[in-house]
Amino acid sequence: MLLWNDNFSIGIEGIDLQHRYFIDLLNRLSLELKDSDAAYQAKLIDELASYAKQHFISEENIMYKLGYPGLKKHSEYHQDLLEKLNGRIGLYLLDMLEPDEIISYLSKWLIQHIVQEDKILAKFISELK
Ligand SMILES: [Fe+2]
Ligand SMILES: [Fe+2]
């Protein structure tokens, strides 16, 4: 269970809300995965990957509109995660990885990314005012 912690807040409400939702989704899916059959588990994992993609597009749109100089580097981190996530989903579909390993991998990545890269973006946004 991943608890929201004020250290995760970057101070930009629209992005913080998405991060909170992302963490809620990770927690909900980690519970649901335990009692689900393989077909439903695959749907849950797919839902998670879709939300990750959607969140990254939303952040990249904000960066683009604001002329954020770190857009390219930040987008590469997002892209890299999506590729690693796809690789893990592939292993899971081959029964070579437990679904909760996907959740824990993504949880660790998300927290680290929020407190590092997303906070750098937030600093840039707050200095625009
Ligand atoms: Fe983010
Ligand atoms: Fe990000």
Describe this structure in words.
The protein is mostly helical. It has a single domain, classed as Up-down Bundle (Four Helix Bundle (Hemerythrin (Met), subunit A)), CATH 1.20.120. 78% of the residues lie in helices and 0% in strands. Helix 1 runs antiparallel to helix 2 (38-65), helix 1 runs antiparallel to helix 4 and helix 2 runs antiparallel to helix 3 (71-93). The longest helix has 28 residues, at 38-65. It is elongated and about 50 Å long. Bound molecules: fe (ii) ion (2 copies). Residues 19, 55, 59, 114, 118 line the site of one fe (ii) ion.
List the SSEs and their pairings.
Blueprint: H1 13-34, H2 38-65, H3 71-93, H4 99-126
Helix pairs in contact: 1-2, 1-4, 2-3, 3-4
Bound molecules: fe (ii) ion (2 copies).
Q: Helical percent range?
A: over 70%
CATH architecture heading: Up-down Bundle
Distance between the termini: 36 Å
| Helix-strand topology string | HHHH
* CATH level 3 topology: Four Helix Bundle (Hemerythrin (Met), subunit A)
Fourth CATH level, the homologous superfamily: Hemerythrin-like
| Rg calc | 15 Å
For the largest beta-sheet, the strand count, sense and barrel status come to: none
Strand content: under 5%
Query: Compounds present?
Result: fe (ii) ion
Low-confidence stretches: none
CATH class: Mainly Alpha
